[in-house]
Amino acid sequence: MKKIYVFLLPLFVFTIAVSVSSCTKDEEPKEVIADDNTFANYASWSLDAQRQGVDPSLGAAHGGNDSTTVRKIYFKDGVSRSGDEYPVGATILKYSVNSDKSVNVRTGMVKRGNNFDPEHNDWEYFIIKPDGTIAKDADGNVLRGANLMNGACVGCHSGAASKDYIFTK
C-alpha cells in the first residue's frame, strides 16, 4: 500500500500544480469589438458618477445645457485605470435624461485596442438604444466610431487625454 502512495503523491502534486497555474488571470485581450450585447444590462453595472444640471464644458453634448438633466455614468465591472490607462475592453455608458425627457440619450465607449485609433488610445464611441443595443441611423448605419458626427466624441474627450479620455474617474 505504501508503494501506491509513493506513485500517487507525485501525480497528485503535479495535478494540483497544473490546475493552479491554469487558473491564473487571463491576459488582456488584444481587441474587443462591441456588439449588441456589449451594453446589455448597463443599469446593473457600477454607477461610478452622477452629475446634474448645466455643465458648460459639455455644450449640447449629453444634455449639458439643461438644468434638469441627470447624467449617470456606468462602468462595466467597475473597471478603473491601471496606471495611466484603462484596459482593452473597458466599457462605459453615460445615460442622460432631463425632467421632460426631451433629453434621453445613452452614449457609450469601449477601449477597443489593436490600434483601432492609436492617436486617441483606441477608444470607440457609440450611441446606445434604451435596450442596450447599438443604435442605427435612418439609413441603417450603426452609430459607432467613424459614423458619429465627424469625430465630435473624440474632439471633446481629448480634453481628458491625461486621464485616458475619461472625465469621471
Question: Could you characterize the architecture of this molecule?
Answer:
The protein has 169 residues and is α+β, with helices and mostly antiparallel strands. It has a single domain, classed as 3-Layer(bba) Sandwich (Chalcone isomerase). The protein has 2 helices and 5 strands. It has a 5-stranded antiparallel β-sheet, with no helix packed on it. β3 and β4 form a beta hairpin. The longest helix has 21 residues. It is globular and about 45 Å long. The termini are far apart.
Oligomer: single chain
* Helix fraction bin: 10-25%
Please state the second-level CATH architecture: 3-Layer(bba) Sandwich
Helices, by number, come to 2
Provide the fold topology.
Layout: H1 2-22, E1 46-52, E2 70-75, E3 91-97, E4 104-111, E5 123-128, H2 152-157
Antiparallel strand pairs: 1-2, 2-3, 3-4, 4-5
